[in-house]
Amino acid sequence: MKHSEPSITLPYSRQSIDEKDIDAVCSALSSDLLTTGPKVSEFEEAFAQCVDAKYAVAVSSGTAALHAAMYAIRIKSKDEVIVPAITFVASANCVVYQGGTPIITDVDSKTLLLDPIQVEAKITPRTKAIIAVDYAGHPCDYDALKDIAKRHKLFLVDDACHALGAKYKGKKVGALADITAFSFHPVKHITTGEGGMATTGNPEMAERMRMFRSHGITRNADKFINCLQEDNERQSWYYEMQDIGYNYRISDVQCALGLSQLQKLQKWINKRRKIAKQYDIKIAELREVSSLHVNENIFHAYHLYVIKFDSNDLRNKTYQAMRNNGIGVNVHYIPVHLHPYYRKNFGTADGLCPTAETAYKLILSLPMHQGMDDNDVEQTMRILQTVVQ
Ligand SMILES: *Cc1c(COP(=O)(O)O)cnc(C)c1O
Question: Which of 188, 264, 274, 282 is catalytic?
Answer without folding.
Answer: 188
